[in-house]
Amino acid sequence: MKSKSSPLERLLAIRGMAQVITVGIGLVFLCVVFWQINPLFFSQRNIDNLSRQIVPILLVGIAQSYVLITGNIDLSIGSVAGMSCMISATLMAAGYNPWLSIVFTLACCLCIGWLNGVLVARCKLPPFIATLGTMTIARGIAQIANNNYNTDYIGDSSQTFRDMFYYGKSLSVFNPVWLALILWLVFNFILSRTRTGRHIYAIGSNVEASRLSGVNVAHTTNIAYLVSAFCSAVVGLYFTATTGMGAMDSGNMYELYAVAAAVIGGVSTLGGQGLLLGTIIGASIWAVLQNGLQFAKAPVAIQNIVVGAIVIISVLLDVILRNGMFSKKRKTVV
Questions:
Q1: How many other C-beta atoms lie within 10 A of the C-beta of residue 38?
Q2: What is the mean pLDDT of residues 317-326?
Q3: 101 vs 325, higher pLDDT
Q4: Coarse DSSP helix, strand, coil percentages of the chain, rounded to the nearest 5 percent
Q5: Cα-atom radius of gyration of the chain, to the nearest Å?
Q6: Residue 157 has what pLDDT?
Q7: Which residues lie closer than 8 Å to 262 by C-beta, 6 or more apart?
Q8: Which of 11, 241, 258, 314 has its CB surrounded by the most CB atoms within 10 Å?
Q9: pLDDT tens digits along 230-250
Q10: Nearest of 187, 210, 180, 215 to residue 275 by alpha carbon
Q11: Which of 278, 263, 271, 205 is nearest to 18 (CA)?
Q12: End-to-end Cα spacing for the chain
């Protein structure tokens, strides 16, 4: 008779959960360290700021996680966010209804996501090259949206939009935090509880085996890139609400933030593995590092070095574990 496994054993049996728990412990450790350096780290004001800093990193992390799990990558995330910011701000500044502006902006960004999926899945372009091209296209659209100028103030008529995406609060929590949480719940459900989610994991693990099993690889890849474009577009709307204007350089470096949030949270760069729960923790670690190092008055150069090193270590550990280097060494021991 088999003995029943404990709840902890069942939890650790979930693929990728061990790494999620590990980075979760790391997040707690970082928070304690920065709190010891500066007690104001846990002040209500800083917690409010930190929660809103996590929002865009989490959203682009979800975007990149979907694509990475399929075994691909999306370099256009930051440019799509910038394109979303400029299109929405330009329309609102011109007096168009904010909600219609949002719908039009989302439609434009989803076109970039659809194009990414077609180029990668149907035209068989390497995802690095395909999304590098669409990254440049999206940034160009952001630049010409207002004739190579940043937009003016979007107007007081857009205050409801700004409250929803940045300033407003519900139950003492900022609205963008609620929005990010709702989107995370939706996309986590899709990834973990639906056939589409199983197909996303399957093609990341083995494309040919998935195709032979009847998975529509092109369709599934398209869905992953559409999710990426949608989340990136929401980040662009967040930028517009934050500043009340559109800036052509919005979203710069957010491709890096997206990869960092995903891989620190345990999403494999080799495809087929990762949990969106880890992406929340990865995004939180990234935001806490930036926020905490500023509290510690560390130079920007040091901040970049520390965060970059953590990204490299996270990917290196993933490669080592996926290739079974540790287990191979143990097997060779006599």
A1: 15
A2: 64
A3: 101
A4: 75, 0, 20
A5: 21
A6: 81
A7: 61, 64, 65, 68, 274, 279, 282
A8: 258
A9: 999 999 999 999 999 999 999
A10: 187
A11: 278
A12: 34
